[in-house]
Write a structure and sequence with these properties.
The chain is α/β, with parallel strands linked by helices. The chain is built from 6 helices and 7 strands; from the N terminus they run E-H-E-E-E-H-E-E-H-E-H-H-H. It has a 7-stranded mixed sheet, with helices on both faces. Helix 5 packs antiparallel against helix 6. It is globular.
């Protein structure tokens, strides 16, 4: 079993925020792979189905970004999913806009959602870091991640989300390096 997690904030005005790229990816996965209807469970919106003949759960935590780990821990304990089979999609300021970096374990690099997950399940899970760029003007990081993508950025993001969806079977098989190079070279 695999657990796919998309990080974001559940308020209607957060939909197009940079911080909500994880939610957008889970929505696209649900649509492409025809996962079940989203149901409120484990303090999140949960779907289930199969990708590449593997049982997957996909969730968007409704606990807000900074408390994402609460939702994830409840779910993995209930379904007995090993943290090594958790894949988290999240925004990253330190990655160039619309680029992807995949890694297993490591530091949270100051990302509050990742810090929360580390606190509740440890660091042994895969992280798919989606670049949101850095602010060009003097703006606090906490304010920048809550700004909406521009119309031009949205077009570019649709392409990268499609690349992620197309390469998802590689990711499900835990081939992180191959996934990163495939997604970024399309």
């Amino acid at each position: 079993m695999k657990l796919l997690v998309g990080l974001g904030n559940p308020t209607p005005d957060s939909h197009d925020n940079r911080h909500n790229i994880g939610f957008k990816i889970i929505d696209a996965i649900n649509l492409k792979f025809k996962l079940s209807k989203q149901k409120p469970k484990f303090k999140g919106l949960l779907t289930t189905g199969n990708i590449s003949d593997k049982k997957v759960y996909a969730i968007k935590p409704l606990t807000f970004m900074n408390n994402s780990g609460i939702c994830i821990r409840e779910l993995i304990e209930y379904f007995k999913i090993d943290s090594e089979n958790v894949i988290v999609f999240h925004d990253d300021l330190d990655v160039e806009f619309a680029k992807i970096k995949a890694k297993f374990g490591g530091s949270s690099a100051g990302h509050n959602g990742i810090e929360s997950i580390d606190k509740f399940i440890g660091k042994d899970y895969s992280r798919i870091r989606i670049g949101i760029g850095k602010p060009e003007k003097k703006i606090e990081v906490s304010d920048f991640v809550l700004t909406n993508f521009t119309e031009d950025e949205k077009i570019e993001l649709e392409k990268i989300i499609q690349n992620i969806i197309d390469s998802l079977p590689i990711l499900i098989d835990k081939k992180l390096d191959l996934f990163s190079s495939t997604v970024n070279n399309k």
